[in-house]
Design brief:
By secondary structure, this protein is an alpha/beta fold. Helices cover 39% and strands 29% of the residues.
Length: 191
């Protein structure tokens, strides 16, 4: 089903920037990898900065910095989609986005729903030739997601799931594209 739905995306040209919004553990990387393989699109997840510790499943997608470094960069307006999760900062640098654009790839920014509208406006100012697309993603069934969060040792995973459900409901009215990740079987639907 994913392959059928995503085939229409082959017409995407590199004049896009995609913002993939989802709570931690929903499978953002899985969706990005499926987009690459199922469509042959030149999509690339943009490397993010974070203050959290290195995890067993990190694969070079983060630049690890101290809280102090992150706060200084944040003051300099260095980041798009900055947020705090589980006491750690996350953000995507404008320089990393520009590097992906310069390679003529479609940048995919990963993040949570917070501050997305401000970030979209800023991206449109920085890259006026690009169309900014937001996609909100939710994982079903919840049992699978709960196991991922437990593996990553999120203590308050039930609260996170409840928060995610509220975010998803809010996203239904404000985002053009919604993705539901059923483990690795994904379907893209237009809201």
């Amino acid at each position: 089903m994913f392959k059928k739905k995503v085939c229409g995306m082959k017409q995407f040209k590199p004049n896009k920037i995609i913002i993939l919004l989802a709570p931690s553990g929903c499978g953002k990387d899985t969706v990005i990898n499926l987009l690459k393989t199922a469509t042959n699109l030149k999509v690339e997840a943009v490397k993010r900065h974070t203050t959290r510790e290195l995890r067993f499943d990190d694969n070079g997608e983060y630049e690890f910095v101290s809280h102090c470094e992150f706060e200084n960069l944040l003051k300099d307006d260095f980041f798009i989609l900055p947020n705090i999760f589980a006491g750690h900062y996350y953000g995507t640098s404008v320089n990393e986005i520009k590097a992906v654009v310069d390679r003529n790839h479609i940048p995919i920014l990963k993040g949570m729903i917070y501050q997305v509208e401000d970030s979209k406006l800023r991206l449109k100012r920085l890259f006026p030739e690009k169309e900014v697309i937001t996609i909100y993603m939710k994982t079903d069934p919840e049992d699978a997601w709960r196991n991922v969060l437990k593996q990553r040792k999120f203590e308050d995973y039930l609260k996170r799931i409840e928060e995610s459900n509220k975010e998803y409901e809010a996203a239904l009215g404000s985002h053009k594209h919604l993705v539901s990740n059923h483990l690795s079987l994904c379907a893209i639907s237009q809201a």
